[in-house]
Amino acid sequence: MNFRFLETFLWVARLNSFSRAAEHLNTTQASVSNRIAALEQELGVQLFIRDVRGVSLTPTGRLAFQQAQKIVSMTIDFRELVSNRKALRGTVRIGAADTVVYSWLPALIRRMNDRYPSVSLELTIDTSLKIAQKIQAGEVDLGIIMGPLLGQDIFNIEICTFESCWVAAGDLKLPEGELSIEEIANYPLLTFSAGSQPHRALINLLEANRVGDFRIYNSNSLSIMTRLVAAGVGVGALPVVLVRDLIERGQARILDLKPAVPSLVFHIVYQDRGDNALARAITDMAVEIVAETPLEGVVKVG
Predict the structure, then answer these.
(1) Cα–Cα distances in Å, from 208 out to 78, 181, 202, 203, 261?
(2) Where do runs of H (alpha helix) occur along the chain?
């Protein structure tokens, strides 16, 4: 039985679409249709119901799906175990929140390139919420996000925690020493995009401390937030790793202020389908990188 046909069958079933499966597999819709037709002919059964809304599995197709996952998973694990890793080809799609970009993601990509030099990388940097949606839609193979992401067949592993801080430009007119949250509430508070975990946590913190009037400036670009901090626009509630360079250059200082900004817990997330040995290998590499790399403001798991 042709392994490629089984792999194609799994992706059509997951995405409920011949065209989306073709896009994922870097082939044509006609090729996908031919593979499914050949597999159905070989097995003597109908695997999919085709209608104007797309495709769905027949009862026999659902039974075949479970077995095909096991076969494809074992085949890929075997290939990963005995083959030359440098000969492995394909594309892996990684989505990451940009906090990780300022930390250990470049080291992970360098290690990926060393171990799998023939594997291409499609990198998406976006909010954790949007990366999570892409994982669920099958548009990203592996995500590094503020998680966890709950759902059927979703694998989560806590990878690290980023410490956060109150930070402001050195020339912002705030007194030295310990501050109260009321003393900074007159300034715009700079944080992650609206609806994100850090944004909600900041609002909860302000409300819990009975801060009545406050302004929050949001952006899904953390580089913009750091620029606004350096320009003295307001007080940032941001990860330490993000503002480390500003502090070293004397453009900003961490404020001595209680309560502290909540830390950010990051997870590696992917759909645990059984046929994604590369996602599992990248997860192991990420754990290695975080364990090996001393970074201010990053708390390692374990």
Answers:
(1) 54, 11, 10, 8, 13
(2) 3-15, 18-24, 29-43, 59-82, 98-101, 105-115, 128-136, 181-184, 197-208, 222-230, 240-248, 277-292
CATH class of 3-82: mainly alpha
Contact 98, 221 (CB under 8 A): yes
Q: Identify the residue with better confidence: 52 or 271.
A: 271
Phi/psi for 264 (5° steps) reads -110, 120
Residue-level pLDDT at 297: 67
Residue 248 — very low, low, confident or very high, per pLDDT cuts 50/70/90?
very high
Asked whether this chain's domains 3-82 and 164-262 adopt the same fold, the reply is no
Query: Is pTM, for the whole model, over 0.85?
Result: no
CATH superfamily, region 88-160+265-300: Periplasmic binding protein-like II (3.40.190.10)
Distance from C-alpha of 97 to C-alpha of 124, rounded to nearest angstrom: 9
Say if residues 119 and 278 touch (Cβ distance below 8 Å): yes
Exposed, middle or buried, 199 (CB in 10 Å: 0-12/13-18/19+)?
Answer: middle
CATH architecture of 164-262: 3-Layer(aba) Sandwich (3.40)
Distance separating the N- and C-terminal Cα atoms of the chain? 44
What is the β-pairing status of strands 164-169 and 235-239?
antiparallel
